[in-house]
């Protein structure tokens, strides 16, 4: 008996027998936890797939998500919840998805399941609820611009204007300008090349756009990206003349793509003339240019031109990549003052006399915004409105042009003055101040061809000078003592103005074309579209 009491063999069996209930419980709990974890992983995959499917068409998000969930294999039934909203990448992580926002671009899908338990059922928990969610977003982008595309150009006027803006000497031919207007550059990939040329290492496109860069570096880098030798040489010539600096962010808004450092191929293709002109304007050390064209204009003894370029309101860009109605892009405010002296002509009752004609043009900013992106088939709708302003026959002080906060005072134009008679005149066309937005739709072929669509003011303006001649009010009065018939003199002055107006219109059109502004109209064009694949963001 004593020996049996001292026996140690079999003790483990007793311990195991005592622990078996606990071991069975732990095993059952492990089975429960394993089943829950497996189901959690399974429905996470289901939620991911459902969110990606729903993001393809937010208008049918619930149906698309439910269809994907129903098609997913599994042992347990699933329930689905779907919420549409907008994703704001710049917000804090918890605030990036804005549920129920207008114009949704993201979908959040929640999938729920009930997993039966083994061990937990003993304690009154027959099943465990499992819930997983996923958020997917589809990013559709379009790029577009507003301005005035050159239909024709006077090389002498354009050269004089660009020379004044750069402070150097620009001597391009009409063929050079046409080559620049034809040569395209894929802007976003080119920015990486520009960064290397400027010896700036940045992780994001936006960082490069915000850098203060010499215009000569920008134009020089651009020249090396075009294949046409004529356009390449023209850009190199502009680069050698340019002297100022510019932040390209003043011109270009890449939107969400700006936070990237790669990609964007084919999304933003623009002609090099538009880009070069805007870079030169933005980098000009002075915002007013005075040009003496002398007798370059046929039929005119002398032409003097002053141009003042204002800021774009709210630092609005000239070209943008976006997915919604923000930002609104704008042209720069512009004032143009032209003084011309006509060749001397014989007027009835007078000997040879020369008529002088001052013209004033003031333009606020034309505007454009994105209205809609269509992906099946590809199309983009823009809304825009032309710049309000006025064109007038009247005398102005050129020194007052750069102050865009103060209206320019106009006085009657002294068209003709001799010892015997004076003829004065004034005429104006108001381009309207409250134009409504007009929409234009660009289909895939129009986008590929970089086609331009024009929006026009409710006050139509053909040629600036020609239109003003129809509005001018002429008045004559005698200065001497000789009785002279005034009506023939007034008719003679009016006749000279009518003849010279068609000659002045190309001069003004060249100026507005180089500056990228339009009188009573604005050109809109789409430079690219990208319909993105849905991606998981949460």
From TrEMBL:
Residues 10-57 form the Putative Flp pilus-assembly TadG-like N-terminal domain. This is Putative Flp pilus-assembly TadG-like N-terminal domain-containing protein. The lineage of its organism: Bacteria, Pseudomonadati, Pseudomonadota, Alphaproteobacteria, Sphingomonadales.
């Amino acid at each position: 008996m004593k020996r049996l009491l001292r026996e140690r063999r079999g003790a483990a069996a007793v311990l195991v027998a005592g622990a078996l209930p606990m071991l069975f419980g732990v095993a059952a709990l492990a089975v429960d936890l394993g089943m829950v974890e497996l189901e959690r992983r399974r429905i996470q995959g289901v939620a991911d797939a459902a969110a990606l499917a729903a993001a393809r068409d937010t208008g049918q998000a619930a149906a698309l998500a439910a269809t994907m969930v129903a098609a997913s294999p599994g042992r347990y039934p699933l329930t689905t919840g779907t919420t549409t909203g907008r994703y704001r990448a710049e917000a804090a992580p918890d605030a990036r998805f804005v549920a129920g926002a207008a114009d949704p671009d993201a979908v959040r899908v929640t999938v729920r399941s009930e997993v039966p338990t083994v061990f937990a059922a003993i304690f009154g928990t027959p099943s465990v609820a499992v819930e997983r969610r996923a958020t997917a977003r589809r990013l559709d982008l379009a790029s577009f611009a507003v301005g005035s595309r050159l239909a024709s150009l006077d090389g002498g006027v354009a050269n004089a204007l660009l020379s004044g803006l750069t402070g150097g000497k620009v001597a391009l031919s009409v063929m050079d300008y046409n080559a620049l207007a034809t040569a395209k550059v894929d802007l976003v990939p080119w920015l990486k090349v520009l960064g290397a040329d400027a010896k700036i290492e940045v992780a994001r496109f936006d960082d490069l756009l915000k850098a203060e860069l010499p215009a000569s570096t920008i134009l020089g880098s651009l020249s090396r990206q075009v294949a046409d030798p004529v356009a390449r040489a023209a850009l190199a010539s502009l680069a050698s003349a340019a002297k100022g600096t510019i932040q390209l962010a003043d011109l270009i808004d890449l939107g969400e793509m700006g936070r990237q450092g790669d990609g964007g191929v084919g999304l933003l293709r623009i002609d090099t003339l538009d880009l070069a002109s805007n870079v030169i304007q933005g980098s000009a050390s002075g915002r007013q240019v005075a040009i003496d064209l002398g007798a370059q204009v046929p039929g005119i003894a002398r032409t003097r031109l002053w141009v003042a370029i204002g800021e774009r309101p709210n630092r609005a860009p000239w070209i943008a990549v976006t997915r919604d109605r923000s930002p609104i892009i704008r042209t720069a405010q512009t004032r143009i003052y032209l003084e011309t002296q006509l060749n001397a002509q014989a007027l009835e009752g007078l000997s040879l006399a020369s008529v002088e004609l001052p013209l004033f043009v003031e333009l606020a900013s034309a505007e454009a915004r994105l209205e809609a992106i269509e992906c099946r088939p590809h199309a983009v709708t823009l809304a825009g409105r032309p710049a309000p302003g006025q064109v007038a026959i009247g005398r102005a002080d050129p020194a007052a042009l750069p102050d865009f906060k103060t209206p320019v005072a106009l006085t009657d134009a002294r068209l003709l003055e001799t010892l015997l008679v004076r003829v004065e005149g004034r005429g104006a066309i108001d381009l309207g101040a409250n134009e409504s937005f007009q929409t234009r739709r660009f289909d895939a072929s129009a986008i590929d061809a970089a086609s331009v669509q024009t929006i026009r003011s409710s006050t139509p303006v053909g040629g600036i000078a020609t239109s003003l001649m129809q509005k001018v009010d002429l008045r004559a009065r005698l200065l001497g003592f000789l009785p002279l018939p005034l009506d023939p003199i007034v008719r003679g002055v009016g006749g000279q103005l009518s003849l010279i107006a068609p000659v002045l219109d190309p001069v003004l059109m060249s100026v507005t074309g180089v500056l990228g502004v339009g009188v009573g109209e604005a050109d809109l064009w789409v430079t690219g579209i990208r319909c993105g694949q849905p991606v998981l963001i949460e």
